[in-house]
Amino acid sequence: MRVPVVHQQGRRRRARYARLLWNTAEVVVTLGVVLLLLVVHQLWWTNRQAKEAAERKVQALERQWEDEKEGEGEREGEREGETEGSGEPLARGSGSSSGSSSGSGFGTGTGGGLSGGGGRPRYDQAYAVLGIPRLGLRVPVAEGVGASGVLDKGYVGHYPDTAQPGRVGNFALAGHRNTHGEPFRYLDRLRRGDRVEVETRAAVYTYVVDRTLPRTSPGDGGTIRAIPRSTVRPAYGYTEPAHYLTLTTCTPQYTSTYRLVVWGKLRSVRPR
């Protein structure tokens, strides 16, 4: 009669394999959860935070402009009262001339329409509001196109050394297409004739979409020159000086491989 032999070593080996398999499964599941949380953070949480912050900034700019205008009105009223009381004629010429100049925005300088009144805005300062009715978009415009200081806040960034709103040249802007507020997510939906409004403390500048460059390389600097014209696809662009608006973003969605460019021209200026 044979006595059955229990192979303890084989059992221990199988137990080690089972523990290894279980631990590997735990690591894989944990990594999957972490990656899922990162995706949720990027695609949902950053959007929510940036959109809310951008909306608050738009409201803050509007309040600031209204407060400044009310303060100017009160000071103007005080000056007029003092002048009338002294029996001297009212001095209106200089104030009227200044207001007309900043409201028209057709000069060659770079400071027209800034929230602080003249001069170039400091880096990352939000000083204007971009509105695109077709997209239901209303977002702050800040100086510079850095990620952390401007674009990741849900703002649209102004390319330094391009023209300011309403000025001769090219008022060029960049914005995220995905994540961090994604203000330009649906930029490809714009069509010729669509309105784009840029509101500053001084005026509202209305541009009209004129042309679209569906895809070009990220290094195509010609698209934001004073007379915009693609250096990669020269058939797209302009040859004459004018009051241009350029909107740029990444394409296709969820990549940064190429750039989508939308151009517009200034149609009207309305003082605020």
Explained architecture:
The structure is a single chain. By secondary structure, this protein is an alpha+beta fold. It has a single domain, classed as Sortase, Chain: A, CATH 2.40.260.10. Helices cover 33% and strands 24% of the residues. The protein has 2 helices and 8 strands, in the order H-H-E-E-E-E-E-E-E-E. It has an 8-stranded mixed β-barrel. The longest helix is centred in the first third of the chain and has 79 residues, at 8-86. It starts with 7 loop residues before the first helix and ends with a strand. The model is unreliable at 86-113 (pLDDT under 50).
Write down how many β-strands occur, each being a DSSP E stretch of 2 or more residues. 8
Query: Strand fraction band?
Result: 15-25%
Task: Find the CATH superfamily.
Answer: Sortase
Could you report the average pLDDT, rounded to the nearest whole number?
Answer: 82
Question: Helix proportion of residues, in percent?
Answer: 25-40%
Instruction: Give me the number of helical elements.
Output: 2
Shape: elongated
Series of H and E elements: HHEEEEEEEE
And the CATH topology? Sortase, Chain: A
Profile the largest sheet: 8 strands, mixed, barrel
Helix/strand-derived category reads alpha+beta
Rg for CA atoms: 28 Å
